[in-house]
Amino acid sequence: xxxxxxxxGMRPTGRLHLGHYRGVLANWLKLQSEYECFFFVADWHALTxxxxxxxxxxxxxxxxxxxxxxxxxxxKAAAVFRQSQIKEHAELYVLLGMITPxxxxxxxxxxxxxxxxxxxxxxxxxxxLGYPVxxxxxxxxxxxxxxxxxxxxxPHLELSREITRRFNHLYGEVFPEPxxxxxxxxxxxxxxxxxxxxxxNNAIFLTDEPKVIEGKIxxxxxxxxxxxxxxxxxxxxxxxxxTYHNLYSDEPARAGARExxxxxxxxxxxxxxxxxxxxxEDLAPIRTARAAIEADPSIVDAVLKDGGRRxxxxxNKTMHDVRRAxxxx
Length: 329
What we know:
This protein folds into 2 domains: 5-188 and 297-326, Rossmann fold (3-Layer(aba) Sandwich); 208-290, Tyrosyl-Transfer RNA Synthetase (Orthogonal Bundle), CATH 1.10.240.10. Helix content is 56%, strand content 8%. The chain is built from 14 helices and 5 strands. The protein has helices at 18-34, 43-50, 57-71, 88-99, 102-106, 109-117, 126-129, 131-140, 154-171, 210-218, 239-248, 251-262, 268-294, 298-326, and strands at residues 5-10, 36-41, 78-82, 146-149, 179-182. It is globular and about 75 Å long.
């Protein structure tokens, strides 16, 4: 653990989009060469909201892991595994649940927000209320001392830190307190100007062919106040400029697009077409790598099996320490 240990995971939602790639996976690619990394598929977490219809989870896991491997996540450098493979997560979840005050969970702002925002599902269940406890178990069972999060997600990790401190106070210093590894997450907007999300049907997927990408980009909303070609625009409120010029254009190109938009010397279609080739070029190697992995179904199984073995070794060692500290051995 001389390099430090990182834990991060994603719920299995199927094929991933540009927001996942630029917001999470690009950071994982850097971390896997700098730290000892554990990247896991949070399939138990998926059940907190999708418990009534879990049929899609199995296929979603495969599609998501293929995307991970396609962008360059290296299963030799990082352990890649399914949460449900490692039963020690559940054991630690139960034990942490014994010491976590109910009031801590009820005041969780994410719990309150999602109860009001997600109206199509009944989320009044113990699993949804207690997901921060399972999240804490996921992190500390590997004695991870760093968890990568964006600035807006940093408060979510604080509850895990509180639970960890409470355990160490009661039973001795078993776990390092997981530190926030702040990451710069670019703002990735979808084709309708909202945050890119599969549920909004506004995503550019890593598997999209060039013609599909072109169609989505050319239809993307821009500055809504710019009604006609001759109307000057405001790049600072244009979802396309905010996301794609900032991702794919160098400073001179951005400055030229900004001036052309503000003076109405270029139209929105011209502006989009200036960036489109770079976006397509960026995603092309991912599609090529995906095709090779899809041609051999055993690759994903082998990656998850080996990653699960490595994760189990670390988790099993931690649980010996936990049982000893709690007098359960």
